[in-house]
Specification:
single chain; about 200 residues; alpha+beta; Protein Transport Mog1p, Chain A; eight-stranded antiparallel sheet; three-stranded antiparallel sheet; about 40% strand; globular; disordered N terminus; Lipoprotein; Acyl-CoA_DH_CS; signal
Amino acid sequence: MMKNKNLAGLLAAATLVLVLSGCAAVSKVSTGDALVGDRMALKLDTSWNQFERGLGNDTPTWTVEGVTIDALQFYVGIKDGQPIAKLPDAAKNQKPLNFKSSMQAADVVALYQAMLTRDGSSFELVKLEPAEFLGGKGFRFEYALNRKVDDVPMRGLAYGTVQKGELFVIHYSAPRLVFFPRYQARVETLARGAKLKS
């Protein structure tokens, strides 16, 4: 039974890779300066692979190992009333998860939790704390997630802030045992050095 479940997870992941390769161009983001969403300026000390249209929801997405393993996503300048991400075609019947400029950090975390568990995955908030982000007051959260499609235990972290009524978030997730600790420091450095383009 366990072998069948693991096989189903691997097939689902392989299918996702094939779908993504057919609908999203991949390019290299080299070291140095990078600009995401025309507004978030980053300094990179290592290169990343970038999916031009994200994971089917137009969210800018970078990866080192491949998007079914690790994903770094950027939510840039989401305005009051806008969804945090475009719904994929398969989920058009679901209610969009809209950001409200009055949301506190815990409300934003709840919004991301709802997004990450739409497929039945289980989410546990590990930590939520104030943090400087994009040159102002923000927040940082960590979570554990059991990914339903393949039963892989994941870890994630995000830095976020609401500035002038707009939401900005850098979100990273990867399998808990190997890949998350391997790239966590790189993501933390990237997020702490991010700036808003004036």
